[in-house]
């Protein structure tokens, strides 16, 4: 079994890493990396930033407004966000809406 990421997956990881680095507010990243309390405003700011990119519902299929990522892409997104010090997105999927 080959557990290495494909070149396409590596490119996707780099895209996510660059975008998060450019868009994650430094004060929020500082709080996460130092285990400081995040305010409601911090969480809302990050959610709005993700929402503008279409990544707030990163687990959602395209037909419901999400990016339609596969399991590996979702994993890479979550891993890069964690490494950058982004707050975790509260999971809320289309099944919960029904």
Describe the structure.
The chain contains five helices and no strands. By secondary structure, it is mainly α. The mean pLDDT is 92. The chain has a single domain (7-93), classed as Acyl-CoA dehydrogenase/oxidase, N-terminal domain (Butyryl-Coa Dehydrogenase, subunit A, domain 1, Orthogonal Bundle), CATH 1.10.540.10. It starts with 6 loop residues before the first helix and ends with a helix. The longest helix is centred in the first third of the chain and has 17 residues, at 7-23. Helix 1 packs parallel to helix 4 (71-84).
Into which percent range does the helicity of residues fall? 55-70%
Helix/strand structural class: mainly alpha
N-to-C CA distance: 38 Å
**CATH class category label:** Mainly Alpha
- List low-pLDDT spans: none
CATH fold category name = Butyryl-Coa Dehydrogenase, subunit A, domain 1
Total number of β-strand segments? 0
CATH superfamily: Acyl-CoA dehydrogenase/oxidase, N-terminal domain
Strand proportion, as a percent range, falls in under 5%
Based on CA atoms alone, the radius of gyration comes out at 14 Å
What is the helix tally? 5
Helix and strand pattern = HHHHH
Average per-residue pLDDT, rounded, comes to 92
**Biggest sheet record:** none
| Second rung of CATH, namely the architecture | Orthogonal Bundle
| Number of domain units | 1
Task: Tell me the overall shape.
Answer: globular
């Amino acid at each position: 079994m080959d557990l290495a990421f494909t070149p396409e997956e590596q490119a996707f990881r780099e895209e996510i890493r660059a975008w998060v680095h450019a868009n994650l507010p430094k004060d929020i990243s500082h709080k996460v990396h130092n285990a400081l309390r995040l305010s409601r405003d911090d969480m809302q700011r990050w959610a709005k930033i993700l929402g503008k990119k279409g990544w707030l519902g990163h687990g959602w299929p395209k037909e419901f407004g999400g990016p339609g990522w596969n399991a590996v892409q979702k994993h890479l997104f979550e891993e890069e966000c964690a490494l950058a010090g982004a707050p975790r997105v509260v999971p809320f999927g289309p099944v919960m809406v029904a």
